Automatic annotation (TrEMBL):
Pfam families tied to this protein: ACR_tran
GO cellular component terms, A-Z: plasma membrane
Signal peptide interval: 1-17
InterPro entries: AcrB_DN_DC_subdom, Acrflvin-R
Name of this chain's protein: Multidrug efflux transporter MexF
Keywords, sorted A to Z: Signal
GO molecular function, one term: xenobiotic transmembrane transporter activity
């Protein structure tokens, strides 16, 4: 597998958006939080303190499903960014008393950045098991992301390939500590199994470094957490006791990857490194070299896409009629296959989002003379079920630079407003490749069990979970509709068939892929390429005028507004 030379990094930072205005970026991490919780408990408290500060012209926030909250604070031309950084840091301190402790422990950073930071994408692949990225994404998050975040000039690192929404507890045992204390894996298993919650140990498998691991699934109203499991006492045959934490490491992971992430058409975990203009090659190179050398046998850490020559294209694949993520992933694979043929096999990455089942993205490094129009025509002819838009992002240029934000109190009205604008914009050919972000909230269903009822019926919840896992793997159970439980039965201790509906329910839970705010208001961002022969500024003004016209047509209240965003 070819690795892009590190010399490209020097070019990348030379091509950074240094000429653009500086902004203040506030970044917080709240691992494990849903988008809604992150927005309500982190983004809003910070925004309320920052909003209205003298010298601040606009704030935008994004709460993402990976637990990252990013707030961009834009300043007027007369304000000194470095002095304002200290002011914003004090404002953040005022919000901290109401921000969750877990978020504060992860750290809230305030820094001055260029308005358009540069991005580097890395791929983590495994030659030993190339089709399974479950361990890759967890390994990238645990071993790579924090190292990259500590590099001066790196703003944020995001890992794609798994999410915390389908999680389990994993115990990684230390072989040397087990040997030193004469503790066996079976003694650990027995101690964990004896906890008062329903615990199913679904596997004992080696970690990337070869240490044994116990994969734990826990159901019901949980009192068990990584912290309480830490305190489990392992009783040894010689009468001595050992705490679980003395021989292991506990962590949250994901049962299965629920995103499609690929490098060159093959499964991979992806890391997006977002860097500011203060980064230098000397600061970055040692860490990258260290990570490559420290990779476990079979794992490869590769620079996949850089914002420099020869050329970088961003593709968005929109599948309007997508019913499932699998359908969108299949279309994305076909796009990737076509791109790799067109691009003579040069690197490309792709990723989808479980919460936006109709959308996928690709980043393609191609030759300087690559014809993007020819690629778009090729894809339109080969894949008619999807709409594909392409933008040149070489040198850190913003993707789809015609941008208008719609803000207001009700998300449903915002989506209807956006849909009306996009429909008219396409019909009147005001812009090219128009789309909006983030997508609509989606409803999924969470399984909950009644432990008392299950025990009364003679049902083992451990076996119930194993049955559901097997049915899920065979695609016979999706957990998307409450009535799916009507056709599921399980044998109890007496051999009787018991319907799942007697002890389990599927409850609807609304989720967002991201929550975007303009100031304190929920917002949607419409993006597009400029129409042929037109400037970005001219197209943005026409799109804004169209937004005002559709606002009047929909009779939206005065609390709704459209704002032109300068990339």
């Amino acid at each position: 597998m070819t690795t892009a030379p590190l010399a490209l990094l020097a070019c990348a930072f030379a091509l950074r958006a240094a000429d653009g205005p500086s902004v203040i970026r506030v970044t917080a991490r709240y691992p494990g939080a849903s988008v809604q919780v992150l927005d309500a408990t982190v983004a809003l408290p910070l925004l309320k303190q920052i909003q209205g500060t003298e010298g601040v012209t606009r704030t935008e926030s994004e709460s993402a499903k990976d637990g990252t909250c990013a707030i961009t604070v834009r300043l007027d031309a007369k304000t000194d960014p470095m002095k304002m950084q200290d002011v914003i840091r004090k404002r953040v301190a005022l919000a901290e008393p109401v921000i969750p402790e877990k978020c504060k422990r992860s750290g809230i950073t305030v820094r001055t950045d260029p308005a358009q930071p540069v991005e580097f994408w890395f791929a983590l692949t495994d030659t030993r098991n190339p089709d399974d990225v479950r361990d890759l994404a967890d390994h990238a998050r645990q071993e790579y992301a924090d190292v990259l975040r500590r590099i001066p000039g790196v703003n944020e690192v995001r890992v794609l390939g798994t999410t915390a929404t389908d999680s389990f507890l994993r115990i990684t045992l230390d072989k040397e500590k087990l040997r030193a204390r004469a503790v066996s894996v079976e003694e650990v298993r027995a101690a964990v199994q004896a906890t008062n919650d329903v615990v199913t140990i679904t596997a004992t498998d080696p970690s990337p470094k070869g240490d044994p691991r116990l994969v734990i699934r826990i159901s019901g109203q949980l009192s068990t957490t990584p912290k309480t499991l830490d305190e489990i006492v392992i009783k040894l045959g010689n009468g001595q006791n050992v705490l679980l934490r003395d021989v292991s490491r506990l962590e949250l992971g994901s049962k299965t990857p629920n995103e499609l992430t690929t490098f060159g058409g093959k499964p991979a975990a992806l890391l997006a490194v977002i860097a500011n203009r203060d980064a230098t090659l000397e600061q970055l190179e040692p860490a990258i070299d260290l990570l490559r050398k420290a990779a476990p046998p079979g794992m490869q850490f590769t620079m996949a896409v850089t914002p420099v020559t020869p050329r970088v294209l961003r593709l968005e694949v929109l599948v309007p009629d997508a019913r499932t993520m699998e359908y969108t992933q299949e279309k994305c694979k076909r796009v990737m296959e076509s791109v790799l043929v067109w691009n003579d096999g040069l690197p490309a990455i792709s990723f989808t989002d479980r919460l936006q089942t109709n959308r996928a993205e690709l980043l393609v490094t191609c030759k300087p003379d690559a014809d993007a129009d020819a690629l778009q025509k090729r894809l339109a002819g080969e894949i008619r079920e999807a709409t594909i838009r392409i933008c040149d992002v070489t040198g850190g240029k913003p993707a789809f630079p015609v941008r208008v934000a719609l803000a207001g109190p009700d998300a449903e009205h915002l989506w209807k407003w956006s849909e009306a604008i996009r429909t008219r914009a396409r019909k009147d050919a005001l812009v090219n490749d128009v789309a909006d972000w983030p997508g609509r909230d989606v409803t999924r269903h969470e399984m909950s069990f009644n432990k008392e009822k299950a025990e009364e019926l003679g049902i083992s919840l451990g076996k119930a979970l194993e049955s559901l896992n097997s049915l899920t793997e065979m695609h016979k159970f999706r957990g998307e509709k409450p009535d799916e439980l009507n056709n599921l039965f399980l044998k109890n201790a007496k051999g009787e068939l018991v319907p799942f509906t007697a002890f389990a329910t599927l409850n609807p839970v609304v989720e967002s892929a991201s929550i975007y705010r303009l100031g304190l208001e929920r917002a949607i961002r419409i993006t597009a390429n400029a129409a042929d022969g037109k400037s970005v500024t001219d197209c943005a003004e026409k799109l804004h005028a169209l937004a005002e016209s559709e606002k009047a047509n929909l009779k939206l209240a005065t609390g709704y507004r459209a704002v032109i965003l300068v990339p």
